[in-house]
Structure prediction request, 307 residues.
Amino acid sequence: MTLSSPVAAPSREQQYAQALIFITPALFCANMLLARYSADFIPPVALAVWRWTGVVVLLLPFCGPELWRQRQALMRDAGRLLVLGALGMGICGAVVYAAGKTTTATNIGLIYAVSPVLIILLSRLMFGDRLSKRQMAGAALALTGTLVIVTKADWAVLKALTFVPGDLMILGCAVAWAAYAVLLKRWPGNLSINARLAAIAAAGVIVMLPFLVWEMATVGPATPDARTLAVIATVILVPGLSAYACHAYITKHLGPAKAGLILYLSPVYNAVLAWALLGEQFAAYHWAGAVLVLAGLYIATSLSGKR
Prediction:
């Protein structure tokens, strides 16, 4: 008779990261809501630049000394930081804002549902990471729940979909997010989570500056009224600082594949926000999809057992 090796208990950091999986999507959902709300009065590149400039300004008092001490390491990693900034803050910021003007919520939900799959594939290619059968089953269940919500449990919706240029932009964003999530783990560095976020955000702003100049010359600047300032403050605090810090924490302690699964919760949170803010009613497909997504995420991200 042989005894199996005991399963190591999850660390406190892993438990926190698992809890954040169910919180972080709500922070990201706020980004798209604000992008649609502000589409007519804030140009997309300007909104992205202000968002990440604000994040840097808020983080510097806390991590500025660390960044100064690590300045030589930052110079050595400048190329990697610029790549991460372009992917996570530029493409997944300004391009998403621009695409939201022409594509539909249904298409965005369907296209972004590809990201977790891309993250799993890239993690396998770059790290050799493998998901267990249990984790694969959970991911499949969560994907099914996402499709139930996005299609309103009517699979004929998939046949009737039409695509516009904005859809290709969102597909590019989904690929960029997958690459960002995997490279964030592949290039760990020695900085704390907040210091690294500040460095990547600053790099993203640098990458976007030429596009901001072009946008201001062709579209014009945003009007600095109370409405504009309120939107900018919110995107800085919620989908900027909070969402990306939480995602970085999840990626660090659970890996990019599990962190990518948070995207499956977005349709659930969008439905909740539409109910709370717009008075829309929950339909049967919302409940069914939510149950499938939550059950799938629980199975896929469970910290006990790997079979």
Q: What stands out?
A: Residues 51 and 236 are 5 Å apart (CA to CA). The longest helix spans residues 226-254.
